[in-house]
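Follow-up to my post from last week.
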Amino acid sequence: MSARQVVIARDPEDLAHQAARRFVAAARRAYAKGKRFTFALAGGSTPAGLYRALAQNPYREQLVWYRMEVFFGDERCVPPDHPDSNYRMALETLLDHVPLPEDRVYRISGERSPEEAADIYQGILRGHFRLGSAHLPHFDLIILGLGEDGHVASLFPGMPALDEARHLVVATPAPPYARPAVPRVTLTLPVLNAAREIMFLVEGARKADIVRRVLGEPPTGEAERLPAQRVLPKAGRVVWCLDQAAAAQLQEGI
Ligand code: 6PG
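User reply:
Got it. Predicted complex:
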């Protein structure tokens, strides 16, 4: 059963620092095992604060960049230099500012067709983690945001990708309300739930309602569970890093 921790930060800046400290701690756990730290970045806007913090001291100098491997939880099907590209956001806020060897960054090729990009990325995961067809990659850390509909990565409520149990990576359309409403490529729930640690980053008053629903309202049944409520790593921990605005509707002691 995954252990769950909720950390409430004063504001987005404090959130970035709280998350950066946990990121460094997760990296050090991997280093202590003589491993490279293998993690997946989230897209959207919230993680940018964390990425900028990691690119600066004290966190930058606490990380051993040549012992790190960067993957992505999902990508919009746009070219890597497109304003909506998660890769571009990560490049601008973090990857261009740290001594991470380029061959340690594994981006999802958003410029290709969604199905082709998903197949290629799945092949990268299988090759990198040396996986047989029935095995899952165990990321040391996967960073996730939370959509106002409860989606994580590009696993949206009611979309088939959410129930994908065979593939590690799938292509999925985005629901019409999603922004940007372009096809996506996403890690699947089994991969998220094979992670050693999941770190959610959620900020802002507009997320307060979904945070309450996800953390404060146990689902009545499997079908009612929001995507974020299905992220329960079997042998991992889940840390929810919220700012006070996003946590405003949570009861004490969640
Ligand atoms: C994406 C993300 C997505 C994001 C949430 C929250 O590609 O958009 O993977 O899951 O994390 O939509 O986005 P914000 O942080 O911008 O609110």
